[in-house]
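Notes, Module 5: Reading structure tokens.

Key idea: the token line is not a picture. It is a compressed description, and you learn to read it the same way you learned to read a sequence, by spotting repeated patterns. We will look at two proteins. The first is printed below with its tokens.
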Amino acid sequence: MHPLRLKDGTTIASRDELYAALGAMTNKTFSTHCDEKKNDFASWIEHELSDKFLAASMRRATNKEEMRKALFVAMFR
């Protein structure tokens, strides 16, 4: 498994770490990795953590809060 490296230097190696990072992340960093054409977070979840269901939920999210909610729900399913 390869960690997700963000533009701001943050390294993420788990769903829990991504959840925490999204809570602290600036909007600028978020928009660098997620916009209408790409979603690095969902791609990483799908390809590195092999969770297609969560990746699909994250692709439907339109902001950090919705993405964190998708992660939170996945932690308890």
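Here is the second protein, with the sequence above and the tokens below, as before.
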Amino acid sequence: MKIIALEEHFADPAVAKAGGREAQALSPGFGEAFGPSSGLPYSPTPEVLQDLADKRLADMDAGGITMQVLSCLGAQT
């Protein structure tokens, strides 16, 4: 069976840098609530979010994911 994961995210360092101040103002506690130290079962690190190749594909394989629909974090600011 094919599994397509929706609402998956990636981070572009240039987008994060350009919109970082605005994103922090809109959601001041977001990083603490959902970051790697939040205790959630899966909270990817910035390095994982920026990887669109080997690490992401290995993670998809481990989870049985066939395809992901990606959204760029921070692009809404």
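Summary for the second protein:
- Helices lie at 13-26, 30-34, 46-50, 54-63.
- The first helix runs from residue 13 to 26.
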